Amino acid sequence: MFYAAIGAGFVAGVSVILAWYFGRFLGVEPCELCIYARWLTAAFSFGCFVLAWLENKGAVWRSRMLSIVMIIGFLSLALSIGHGLLERKIIHLHMACTDSQLMSDRITDAEGFKKLIEDKAPARCDKITWSFLGLSMANWNGLFTLILLGGLMYAQKRKKSKQ
């Protein structure tokens, strides 16, 4: 379980760093849902490292931390799936970061129109801004999260079968 937790924490941490790098240096601006996903992935990474640290500290604390890590992981997975469905136009949400809000609702006066023209528009949640092998960043995040959760569950099952 120790190595699975360290590995999952490392992969999740690297994915957060890569997402930050893409936004900072490659110009791939994150949308609102991407920001939430980054926070959940960072919490998952931190939780995995704490889980590894608790390996020999007692079954009760390790069990509680594993539960917390799994909940965070499943929340991250659910967010990634929802974001991917939103990007592919399979589901539609009325959010500020989608196209569903009318322009007339956003601009109420001349000052608002001027601000819209001068400011950089925020990234939209329903647009794919980056993809690799046909999968968006939200899809990749969901895939990696699913693999990491599966690895943690497998490691826990193996550990219980050895006892």
Structure characterization notes:
This protein has 163 residues and is mainly α. It has a single domain, classed as Bromodomain-like (Up-down Bundle), CATH 1.20.1550. It contains six helices and two strands; from the N terminus they run H-H-H-H-H-E-E-H. It has helices spanning 2-25, 32-53, 59-87, 103-106, 110-118, 137-162, and strands spanning 131-132, 135-136. The chain has a two-stranded antiparallel ribbon. Helix 1 (2-25) runs antiparallel to helix 2 (32-53).
Task: Specify Rg, calculated over alpha carbons.
Answer: 19 Å
Poorly predicted residue ranges = 100-104
Tell me the helix content: 55-70%
Strand order of the largest sheet: 1-2
Shape field: elongated
* Amino- and carboxy-terminal Cα gap: 13 Å
Averaged pLDDT, please? 77
**CATH classification class:** Mainly Alpha
Architecture (CATH level 2) name: Up-down Bundle
- Main β-sheet, in a few words? 2 strands, antiparallel
What structural class do you assign from the helix and strand content?
Answer: mainly alpha
